[in-house]
Each structure stands twice: as C-alpha cells, then as structure tokens.
Amino acid sequence: MSVSDSIRWQVVERAGNRCEYCGLSQEGQEAVFHVDHIFPVSLGGVTELDNLALACVSCSLRKAARVQVPDPASGEQVAIFHPRNDRWNLHFRWSDCEITGITPTGRATAVALMMNRPMALRIRAEERARGRHPPPGQL
To answer: By the 8 A CB rule, do 110 and 99 touch?
Structure first.
C-alpha cells in the first residue's frame, strides 16, 4: 500500500533518514527506503504515522508482514521490534559494526532481518569511516 508524499516525508524526517530497524542511513544508498507498516495492513494495520516506519529495503523485505519471529535462544515466538513502541537501545547494542540483540525481541529481530549480513557490515564500516556510524541515539 502506498502512502502520500506528505506522509512519506514525515516518516523520513522523524526517522532522521535512517532505517528504524537497523539504523542504516539512506544517505549514499542507491535504493529508496520503504515506508513500512509496522503492524501489517494484511493483519488490520492502518496507514497512519504511528504505524509507519522508515525501513531499508533489506529490513523491509525480510520483515514482510510479520509481527512475531522466533527467538534463536529459546525458539519461542516473540514480538518483532516495534519502532514506535520499543526503544532501540533497550533491545540492541553495537559491537563495532555488528548489532547484538540483548533481549528476546532484539535477538529475534536481528536474526530475522539478517541485520549482520556481510553487506550490512561493509556498509556500516564505510559509514563509520565517514563519521556516520553508529547512528545518533543508538550509541
């Protein structure tokens, strides 16, 4: 489902032009980031600012229409990270350029969205060299 240009720019501005899941900056990326429905339309989610997040293409496609994913430590289904309700720093930590999940939600989201795939690590290393990593507010 598409969103209006006005709503898109509000989402981009609120997110600081970064993926609200993995923190990747849209600056310098070839692909335009997606406006993600945090609670999917297919499950009754609505197109309102409180239900929208800026997501890099990789996180958006891997999240898909899921609201729960398995915790790799327990195997139990847990809520996927919710950018409006959850604080990033309570679920994740930076270890150089890698994202470490520190809660069941953090672990499950990091694995499900493949936040530490080789390309993401290379992009973050480049971002670090340019002074754009780690993202503000995710120190």
So the answer is: yes
